[in-house]
Amino acid sequence: MGMQIYKKYIYYVKSTGICIVVMGGCWFLYQLRQASQILRSTVPTNVLNLEQMHAQYIYIDDPRYKDVFMFRKNENLQSFLPEQSPSFSDIVMKWWKSLNRNLAYKLLHMAQHGDKTERLKAVYTLSSLKYLKDWHYHHIAQMLDARTAVSLARMSNVDSRFFLKPPYYHVQHKLYDIIEKVHALLLYLNTVCNNTHPCLTQFLNKKFRDSHRDGLILDHDLTSLGLAAAPAIIWDQELLQSCVQALCHHSCLEKYSKNIVDAGGLSVLMIIKKVFSDNVDMCILLAKIISNISLHSEYLENIFQAGWIGTLVEWSRTADIRLSAPASRALANLDMDENEHVKYPRRIYLLHPLHKTRTNAKLDVVFLHGLLGGVFVTWRQRDSDTSTFGVVDSYVMENGTDTLSSMIGEQSQEFLKDLAYDLRKREWDRLGEDFEIILDDCPQNTNRKARGPYFCSGDDDCIKKCDRDRKCRTQCWPKDWLPEDVPSLRVIGVNYDTNLSMWTPSCPIEGAKTTMGERSGEYIEKLLTAGIGKRPTIWVCHSMGGLLVKKMLVDEWKNGDKNNICKNTRGIIFYSTPHRGSRVAVLTQTTQMLVWPSVEVQELREESPQLLQLHEDFLNMLKEYPTEIVSFSETKSTLVTALKVPFQFVTANSADPGVGEFFEIAQDHLSICKPASRHSFLYQKLLNILKRHVTPHEKTNLSPITELLSLPSKLF
């Protein structure tokens, strides 16, 4: 009896399960059909069909048509096609591509008309869509507005086909015509500014002194007619590049940069870019001009219509940081959705993040170079020595080749080297965790407050990344290394011009700001514009850059720290900063008359009263705003001039601020801020400080499906 009841229950359970599965399947198919109908009704497909009906070319990507001749006089191509029933996978793929296409148009509509959160999600999802055809990208590009285009351009994986080519891109221009356009533009700018920029006036008088459009024919026109000798000024590519340099210098003055747009200069610059797209130096100048103009958000529409958004995307992906940095800065300034209240002025470079990120920065790291330095010079990776750490096999000779490979061919040698390296690497991965390795650039001397790390375990991440760093060297280690090792950072590089002598020509307008006090006021304003003071900040500075940081902090402290820069300063790392001056500025009175040292050099005099007073004020500021201080000092002399004369720029006594941790490193003045790898103590100490001020978090990478499901229901 119990067995019959048990079988009866089993029957009911099976029947119920079958009914649930059948009904669930029917419900799923119904919902799928409803979603498909809604998506199809989102965009008027008849417009797309009309566009396809009038297409001049039909691209057939089907191997079954390979036997059909292009000019065969047969209207029915289907007769040549063997009958073949579509498979289930073909049907699913066709449906998926159709879904992507219709979804792309809906996402575009949401990115243009949604609120800020919806626009951001829509742009993320739109940039990740696949299986779109060329004409889909081009159609969407025609529908883009300026704000959405910039937001899409700042996505790391955006397809360049989302951006149209500049108008009249196919028109060919001669070099003389381009120079005439640029000359006319410079003349207009000089007139608008009422000849108040002496550099521009001097350039025009020097380069075009005999060329006037009003009443006279240009020299090159006379030469082409055979009526005159060769002109004194040669109208060639070198002259054009000089004109673009003058234009770039004029755009550096913020009050004048907008005049370039008003004069129609964006289209002229695009013509130059088209003709000299392979000239890196020319492209760098153009990128700087556009980045200077990008500070004026009201000209976003002009920049977009001139076709510069797609060009900036192309430049931001180049390996040359001199080109990618200003291009990325221009896109960041134009992205009003993300940087509405933050701008990056001239000489302030955003090194990370270069693209839109899902996480907010928790710490700002600001890098300042020293005398005659620069963001792309001071902070590059140092050339590593031939002797590097690692497991050394007994059969490897001193010259780097083993006995066996020396007896066989060159290709076999390379193969055996790679094989030996792989074997050693596997062995080290297995045994490395049992070892501790001393960091490169280990300090020779420290003070009592100094702390490590001086060692790292054999299986540490920095060991695994060192080989990659040697093979793929970085032009700017703060840009490439720090974001990988410490998340949630915003890395900013600061550039400022310096000279050794007053004989060096400089702009009369900009050259007035040469003293440290004037530089402090200028760069405090620039950094506030970039958002410094709104979150915790760590300053990393080399040589004279450390003095500038101290001056800025002291000035803010004396003004009551209204911008919270001192309050939010968490640490300062000094790389050979001459707190008590440098011997490089010690010159006799006779030598000073000949060399005429610049104001920067005069301020670096050893035991200078101004520097000693600045340091005293800095120590008093630290009493009110305690800050972590780490200082590195050079111990090797630097070989200067062509004669390789050894000279120690900063002594240990001058590099020691008397507060915080102090380390003496066996490097010269130029290489002390250039770690050879992540395995260097110079880098690991900075990394240790940053990690203590940033709360670790796990990076979340949402898939396109997850992103799509997180969008509001009105999308469907």
Written account of the structure:
The protein has 716 residues and is an alpha/beta fold. It is 48% helix and 8% strand. The strands form three sheets. The protein has an eight-stranded mixed beta sheet with strand order 1-6-2-7-8-9-12-4, with helices on both faces. Strand 10 and strand 11 form a beta hairpin.
Strand order of the largest sheet: 1-6-2-7-8-9-12-4
General shape: globular
What's the rounded overall pLDDT mean? 78
Distance between the termini: 55 Å
Structural class: alpha/beta
Give the low-confidence spans.
47-61, 64-73, 212-230, 386-408, 587-596, 696-700, 711-716
- Rg calculated over all Cα atoms: 32 Å
Tally the helices: what do you get?
A: 29
Number of strands: 12
The proportion of strand residues reads: 5-15%
**Helical coverage, percent range:** 40-55%
The biggest sheet, with number of strands, parallel, antiparallel or mixed sense and barrel status, is:
8 strands, mixed
